[in-house]
Amino acid sequence: MKKILIFIGPPGSGKGTQAKLLAKKYGYKHISTGDLFRALSEDETATEKEKQALEEMKSGKLVSDWLVYNLAFKEIKKNLESNVGVVLDGAIRSLEQAKEFQKFFEENNWGEEIQAIEVSLSDDESFNRLAKRRICSKCGEIIPYLSTTKDLSDCPKCDGELIYRQDDSEEIIKKRIEEQGNISLYPIVNYYKNLGSLKSVDGNQAIEIVEKQIENIVKL
Ligand code: AMP
Hints:
single chain, alpha/beta, five-stranded parallel sheet, binds adenosine monophosphate
């Protein structure tokens, strides 16, 4: 199994859920740049420059590349050097980032360790899912809108309060899909296809089915 698993997909595609399931199953480290940014925005030791860069996140825009690289590369290096594989969740959102990550992997001799997994979903379905999902205010668990979860008020894992995410308001969702939806993903997907490192799964299917298909991919 490859040591670097890269999840790509539009917001709401379920890539976060799948990345976490996979990491847990194989003892890999789940690295979500969104989570790293949310943690930094709560961190009192964050610098002014970092705080300013994080402002972009509140309006649904992409955070500056330098902050992505600063946080993500450190976390990836720490784990791979301890021989713990990594599952990257939303860490690569532009062609420039894909190239910079690739450079970083190759410089560290991890060029052969990459498997990119695309979880595909239409922009319309992406919008529907984001508008309805909630997140646990305590442990960060994402609660999709399903018949089994729609009436929950507390997190099934830790009892924390379920809330809507700050960047899940209708206007911001539209902006996020414009900036981070399929049009922006196309060049990234193509990049990994050309490298011969891409596999795709249909994110419209039930969580368990997508999970099974991803497992088959990573075990190849
Ligand atoms: P997520 O939790 O993955 O949906 O990410 C939340 C927000 O963090 C995104 O809407 C972006 O503003 C920011 N973000 C996360 N990852 C990246 C990245 N690789 N590049 C730029 N911005 C990012």
